[in-house]
Amino acid sequence: VREAFPELMHLLASLQDVQGNILVPAIAKWATPISEEERQELRQITFPTPDWACIDADAGRVWSQEDALCKVWHRPSLSIHGVEGAWAEAGMRSVIPGAPTAKLSVRLAPGMEP
Predict the structure, then answer these.
(1) Cα separation of 43 and 41, whole Å?
(2) Of 89, 92, 91, 95, residue with least CA distance to 4
(3) pLDDT tens figures, 19-42
C-alpha cells in the first residue's frame, strides 16, 4: 500500500520538466507556437529589466528578454500554490495523512480555451 502524500508529491513533480515546460498532454497540445511576427513584436519592446528577472535559477539558464516575454505572454503556465494534508504543528505525529490536496492554477495562452 502506498502512502498518499508521497504519491501526490510524485504526481506534482511530473507535471513540468526542469525548464518549466508543461508535461500534461491536454494542456501542452493546445498551446500554439509563437509566430515570427509575434517574436518580432517582442524584440521591439523596450523596458528596463532587473538583472534577476530573466534568470531561471532552477534550470541554470539565463533568459533573453524576448524568451522571457514569450514564456509569460504566449505560453501556458502551471503553478503549484500549496499542499495540505501533512502534520505542520510541533511535535511527533504517528498518523499517515490519508487525503492530501494540492492547490494548482493553469494560465491559458492566447488561442487556448478552457
Answers:
(1) 5
(2) 95
(3) 778 899 888 777 788 889 988 988
